Amino acid sequence: AVGTDYTQPYTNDQLYFEFGKKEGLVNIVDDFMINLLADPRTRTSFEKFDQARIKAQLVEQFCEILGGPCKYAGAQMKPIHASLNIDKAQFNALVEALQKAMDKHQVSFDTQNKLLAKLAPMHRDIITR
Ligand code: HEM
Protein backbone atom coordinates (compact mmCIF):
# COMPACT_ATOMS: atom_id res chain seq x y z
CA ALA A 1 0.00 0.00 0.00
CA VAL A 2 1.13 3.53 -0.66
CA GLY A 3 -0.11 5.19 2.48
CA THR A 4 -3.80 4.28 2.43
CA ASP A 5 -5.68 1.02 2.14
CA TYR A 6 -7.58 2.26 -0.96
CA THR A 7 -4.92 3.74 -3.24
CA GLN A 8 -4.03 1.37 -6.05
CA PRO A 9 -0.85 2.11 -8.02
CA TYR A 10 -0.97 2.23 -11.82
CA THR A 11 -0.19 -1.19 -13.23
CA ASN A 12 2.48 -0.28 -15.78
CA ASP A 13 5.43 2.10 -15.71
CA GLN A 14 4.38 4.49 -18.51
CA LEU A 15 3.54 7.32 -16.11
CA TYR A 16 6.73 6.71 -14.14
CA PHE A 17 8.66 7.26 -17.39
CA GLU A 18 6.63 10.39 -18.19
CA PHE A 19 7.68 11.82 -14.82
CA GLY A 20 11.33 11.21 -15.73
CA LYS A 21 11.84 8.13 -13.56
CA LYS A 22 13.54 8.44 -10.20
CA GLU A 23 15.66 11.43 -11.23
CA GLY A 24 12.62 13.33 -12.48
CA LEU A 25 10.69 12.59 -9.30
CA VAL A 26 13.58 13.74 -7.10
CA ASN A 27 13.75 17.04 -9.01
CA ILE A 28 9.98 17.56 -8.88
CA VAL A 29 9.81 16.76 -5.17
CA ASP A 30 12.72 19.12 -4.45
CA ASP A 31 10.76 21.99 -6.04
CA PHE A 32 7.53 20.79 -4.43
CA MET A 33 9.12 21.18 -0.98
CA ILE A 34 10.56 24.61 -1.89
CA ASN A 35 7.02 25.67 -2.86
CA LEU A 36 5.53 24.21 0.34
CA LEU A 37 8.02 26.17 2.43
CA ALA A 38 7.34 29.38 0.47
CA ASP A 39 3.56 29.33 0.99
CA PRO A 40 2.32 30.54 4.38
CA ARG A 41 -0.55 28.04 4.22
CA THR A 42 1.86 25.10 4.30
CA ARG A 43 5.17 26.47 5.64
CA THR A 44 4.04 26.32 9.26
CA SER A 45 3.37 22.58 8.95
CA PHE A 46 6.54 21.56 7.13
CA GLU A 47 9.17 23.81 8.70
CA LYS A 48 9.14 21.90 11.99
CA PHE A 49 9.97 18.52 10.39
CA ASP A 50 12.88 16.83 8.63
CA GLN A 51 12.20 17.90 5.05
CA ALA A 52 14.86 15.64 3.54
CA ARG A 53 13.14 12.64 5.07
CA ILE A 54 9.68 13.73 3.92
CA LYS A 55 10.98 14.31 0.38
CA ALA A 56 12.56 10.85 0.25
CA GLN A 57 9.25 9.32 1.37
CA LEU A 58 7.28 11.34 -1.19
CA VAL A 59 9.58 10.17 -3.99
CA GLU A 60 9.01 6.55 -2.97
CA GLN A 61 5.26 7.04 -2.63
CA PHE A 62 4.88 8.79 -6.00
CA CYS A 63 7.22 6.29 -7.70
CA GLU A 64 5.11 3.35 -6.54
CA ILE A 65 1.80 5.08 -7.40
CA LEU A 66 3.10 5.83 -10.91
CA GLY A 67 3.95 2.17 -11.51
CA GLY A 68 7.67 2.54 -10.93
CA PRO A 69 10.00 -0.01 -9.30
CA CYS A 70 9.59 1.29 -5.74
CA LYS A 71 7.95 0.10 -2.56
CA TYR A 72 6.75 2.85 -0.25
CA ALA A 73 7.69 1.89 3.30
CA GLY A 74 6.71 5.13 5.07
CA ALA A 75 3.88 5.93 7.39
CA GLN A 76 0.22 5.52 6.59
CA MET A 77 -1.41 8.83 5.66
CA LYS A 78 -4.00 8.86 8.43
CA PRO A 79 -1.77 8.43 11.50
CA ILE A 80 1.12 10.56 10.24
CA HIS A 81 -1.16 13.55 9.57
CA ALA A 82 -3.56 13.05 12.47
CA SER A 83 -1.97 15.49 14.90
CA LEU A 84 -1.20 18.18 12.30
CA ASN A 85 -4.67 19.78 12.32
CA ILE A 86 -4.75 20.17 8.51
CA ASP A 87 -7.63 22.04 6.87
CA LYS A 88 -8.98 22.07 3.30
CA ALA A 89 -7.17 25.29 2.38
CA GLN A 90 -3.86 23.69 3.34
CA PHE A 91 -4.64 20.56 1.35
CA ASN A 92 -5.48 22.70 -1.68
CA ALA A 93 -2.26 24.67 -1.19
CA LEU A 94 -0.28 21.44 -1.27
CA VAL A 95 -1.94 20.45 -4.54
CA GLU A 96 -1.05 23.87 -6.02
CA ALA A 97 2.55 23.51 -4.84
CA LEU A 98 2.77 20.13 -6.57
CA GLN A 99 1.16 21.44 -9.78
CA LYS A 100 3.65 24.30 -9.87
CA ALA A 101 6.58 21.89 -9.50
CA MET A 102 5.19 19.56 -12.21
CA ASP A 103 4.68 22.54 -14.54
CA LYS A 104 8.27 23.63 -14.01
CA HIS A 105 9.47 20.16 -14.97
CA GLN A 106 7.20 20.06 -18.02
CA VAL A 107 4.99 17.19 -16.97
CA SER A 108 1.98 17.33 -19.30
CA PHE A 109 -1.40 18.37 -17.89
CA ASP A 110 -2.91 14.91 -18.50
CA THR A 111 0.01 13.19 -16.80
CA GLN A 112 -0.14 15.60 -13.85
CA ASN A 113 -3.80 14.77 -13.40
CA LYS A 114 -3.08 11.04 -13.31
CA LEU A 115 -1.00 11.55 -10.18
CA LEU A 116 -3.43 14.07 -8.67
CA ALA A 117 -6.31 11.62 -9.20
CA LYS A 118 -4.56 9.15 -6.89
CA LEU A 119 -3.74 11.80 -4.28
CA ALA A 120 -7.08 13.62 -4.16
CA PRO A 121 -9.02 10.85 -2.34
CA MET A 122 -6.39 10.93 0.41
CA HIS A 123 -8.02 14.14 1.62
CA ARG A 124 -10.26 12.02 3.80
CA ASP A 125 -7.28 10.69 5.74
CA ILE A 126 -5.42 14.02 5.90
CA ILE A 127 -7.92 16.84 6.49
CA THR A 128 -9.04 16.79 10.11
CA ARG A 129 -10.74 20.16 10.57
C1 HEM B 1 -2.39 14.09 -0.83
C2 HEM B 1 -1.75 14.90 0.00
C3 HEM B 1 -0.57 14.46 0.83
C4 HEM B 1 0.28 13.41 0.66
C5 HEM B 1 0.28 12.38 -0.46
C6 HEM B 1 1.23 13.45 1.74
C7 HEM B 1 2.27 12.54 1.90
C8 HEM B 1 3.13 12.52 2.97
C9 HEM B 1 4.18 11.56 3.17
C10 HEM B 1 4.54 10.42 2.21
C11 HEM B 1 4.80 11.85 4.34
C12 HEM B 1 6.01 11.12 4.97
C13 HEM B 1 5.55 9.96 5.83
C14 HEM B 1 6.71 9.34 6.55
O1 HEM B 1 7.59 10.08 7.04
O2 HEM B 1 6.76 8.11 6.69
C15 HEM B 1 4.13 13.01 4.89
C16 HEM B 1 4.46 13.64 6.06
C17 HEM B 1 4.04 14.91 6.41
N1 HEM B 1 3.04 15.63 5.81
FE1 HEM B 1 1.94 15.02 4.23
N2 HEM B 1 0.93 14.50 2.56
C18 HEM B 1 -0.15 15.15 2.04
C19 HEM B 1 -0.76 16.29 2.55
C20 HEM B 1 -0.23 17.08 3.54
C21 HEM B 1 -0.70 18.39 3.91
C22 HEM B 1 -1.88 19.10 3.26
C23 HEM B 1 0.13 18.85 4.90
C24 HEM B 1 0.11 20.16 5.63
C25 HEM B 1 -0.11 21.32 5.05
C26 HEM B 1 1.09 17.80 5.16
C27 HEM B 1 2.09 17.87 6.12
C28 HEM B 1 2.97 16.84 6.43
C29 HEM B 1 3.96 16.92 7.49
C30 HEM B 1 4.20 18.12 8.41
C31 HEM B 1 4.61 15.68 7.51
C32 HEM B 1 5.71 15.21 8.48
C33 HEM B 1 5.02 14.57 9.68
C34 HEM B 1 5.94 13.82 10.60
O3 HEM B 1 7.09 13.51 10.23
O4 HEM B 1 5.50 13.51 11.73
N3 HEM B 1 0.85 16.75 4.33
N4 HEM B 1 3.11 13.40 4.04
Describe the fold and architecture.
- Heme binds at residue 81.
- Helices cover 64% and strands 0% of the residues.
- By secondary structure, the protein is an all-alpha fold.
- The protein has one domain: Globins (Globin-like, Orthogonal Bundle), CATH 1.10.490.10.
- Helix 2 crosses helix 4 (51-65) and helix 2 (21-38) packs across helix 6 (88-104).
- The two termini are 25 Å apart.
- The mean pLDDT is 98.
- It binds protoporphyrin IX containing FE (HEM).
- Protoporphyrin IX containing FE binds next to helix 3, helix 4, helix 5 and helix 6.
Write the layout of secondary structure elements.
Elements: H1 14-18, H2 21-38, H3 40-46, H4 51-65, H5 77-81, H6 88-104, H7 109-119, H8 123-126
Helix pairs in contact: 2-4, 2-6
The structure holds protoporphyrin IX containing FE (HEM).
Protoporphyrin IX containing FE binds at residues 3, 42, 45-46, 49, 53-54, 57-58, 61, 74-75, 80-81, 84, 86, 90-91, 94, 119, 122, 126.
Pfam families: Bac_globin
Protein name: Group 1 truncated hemoglobin
Binding site for heme: 81
